[in-house]
């Protein structure tokens, strides 16, 4: 089977500006290093780039930083089709600290307009937040069953 899809070679992470005030991004970086959660599909050859905050609502810095990443990738000869941009779990999913970012769709649009075709919602998944999602205390992640009976026959 052949595919036109190029392999991912680089991962960039965008964090919520507000969450960045209390989060270093170390859990996302460790999740990537250990290839866990939403990084599980990446091989050892994929590189991780420093996470950057969105710039505050409504993603003020995303367009400018996406442009910088695009220029750097072009200088290195890395096609944007090989770059996966992850919107951190603190942006994409409800947690004990914040609801999901209300600007996700606009941020995704800014990234796709800059040429980034691989935009992934989520990074590290907190075990405590996952338990609370399963218990129905937090909204489920897209495609995730929720509630105490989720997964039961």
Number of helices: 6
Following the backbone from N to C, one meets helices and strands in this order, namely EHHEEHEHHEH
Share of residues in strands = 5-15%
* Gyration radius, rounded: 16 Å
Got a strand count?
5
Average pLDDT level: 88
Query: Distance between termini?
Result: 36 Å
What best-fitting shape do the alpha-carbon axes yield? globular
Q: What profile does the largest beta sheet have?
A: 5 strands, parallel
Structural class: alpha/beta
Number of domains: 1
Query: How helix-rich are the residues, as a percent range?
Result: 25-40%
Give the low-pLDDT segments. Answer: none
In short:
The chain has 153 residues and is of the alpha/beta class. It has helices at residues 17-20, 26-33, 62-76, 89-92, 104-113, 127-134, and strands at 10-15, 47-48, 52-53, 83-87, 118-121.
Descriptive notes:
It is built from 6 helices and 5 strands, in the order βααββαβααβα. It is α/β, with parallel strands linked by helices and 153 residues long. Strands 1, 2, 3, 4 and 5 form a 5-stranded parallel sheet that branches. The longest helix is centred in the middle third of the chain and has 15 residues, at 62-76. It is globular, with a radius of gyration of 16 Å.
């Amino acid at each position: 089977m052949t595919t036109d899809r190029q392999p991912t070679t680089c991962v960039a992470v965008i964090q919520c500006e507000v969450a960045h005030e209390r989060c270093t991004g170390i859990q996302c970086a460790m999740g990537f290093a250990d290839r866990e959660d939403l990084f599980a599909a990446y091989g050892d050859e994929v590189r991780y780039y420093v996470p950057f905050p969105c710039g505050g609502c409504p993603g003020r810095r995303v367009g400018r930083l996406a442009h910088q990443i695009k220029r750097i990738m072009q200088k290195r000869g890395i096609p944007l089709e090989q770059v996966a941009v992850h919107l951190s779990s603190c942006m994409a999913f409800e947690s004990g600290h914040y609801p999901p970012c209300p600007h996700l769709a606009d941020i995704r649009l800014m990234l796709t307009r800059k040429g980034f075709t691989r935009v992934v919602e989520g990074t590290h998944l907190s075990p405590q937040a996952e338990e609370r999602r399963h218990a129905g205390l937090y909204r489920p992640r897209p495609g995730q069953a929720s509630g105490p009976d989720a997964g039961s026959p």
